[in-house]
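Hi there, hope your week has been kind to you so far. Please have a think about how the structure follows from the sequence. I've dropped the whole record in just underneath, so have a look:

_____
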Amino acid sequence: MKIDKVEVRELALPLRFPFETSFGRTTAKEFLLVSVSADGVTGYGECVADRDPYYLPETNGTVWHVLSEFLIPLVLGREIEHPRAVLPLLARVRGHEMAKAALEMAVWELEARRQGVPLRHVLGGAKTRIETGVSVGLQDDEATLLTKVETEIAAGYRRIKIKIKPGHDVALVRALRQRFGPVPLMVDANSAYTLDDVDTLRALDAFDLMMVEQPLAWDDVLDHVALQRDLATAICLDESIRSPDLARQAVDLGACRIINIKAGRVGGFASSLAIHDLCLARGVPVWCGGMLESGIGRLANVHLQTLPGFSLPGDTSASARYFEEDLVDPPVVVSPEGRIAVPDRPGIGHDIVWPRIERATVTRREWVA
């Protein structure tokens, strides 16, 4: 296929409820949507960068710049035999995994639409439904958190994740265990701790958690090795894993026992597949995290999780948890049993609602070969 047009839009969608982590509170999802066209067919990739560089260094502004000045010129007008060929074309640009992922994932979705098959078929996945958990942000107080978690358990979610930070950790987990017993539970620190906090993190061992996600610095592997030796609870790495090589190093060194694969964080689907295959061969469980995606990015995550190594529930919850009006129809829904049915129509499998896209669009630009 020959890439003959690329479009980038910046969109803003208000969240139904604020979402708070250790690095701030979000009230609207602001993101870039990349469209790639070839042979009269268009595929779509949602960028996971945000307005601010608090999760990882990239922002919507840096992604727009790198896409327009460097990445799009590398693919526009090029013949591409398979989506796996995209990342090698972009390799001369160092880093900028989120920018690369948005462009690359759009090409994978384009290929699925060209073949007339669901995205999972092109990725090599086989599951027809996935199990899903939910991520609960920091709340104003313990009582609010308990009420929020009770609502999510009643909705059927098969795993609860709560955000933690220093001073908001052990007591919250204790309260959840006392209230909800053996519900599958994990915590996500988003890099809020250091090795000086080892006693606090070790105290979490008492609560039979599935994992502690990314407790230390966003760019660290070695300190996580030392911490994992001190903890009975499995460490899961998120921000630290930005490539297959970093995943291999983390596993070989013993920095973690679980890896969170976000395609948008690691450079796209080809890198996600490489990390998945590595972990599957090494017996390391993987799961798919979320970045408050609209239905476009959310459905891409659904299809990725049809691969066999995704053995733990991900963070791909229902559209209605975040948006009054998602960008896809039907919206993403979770069954009372905590599962999402994988669409079997071409591409991501749900219709994109263009009037909603237009209303949410802040700015757009188009490149034509």
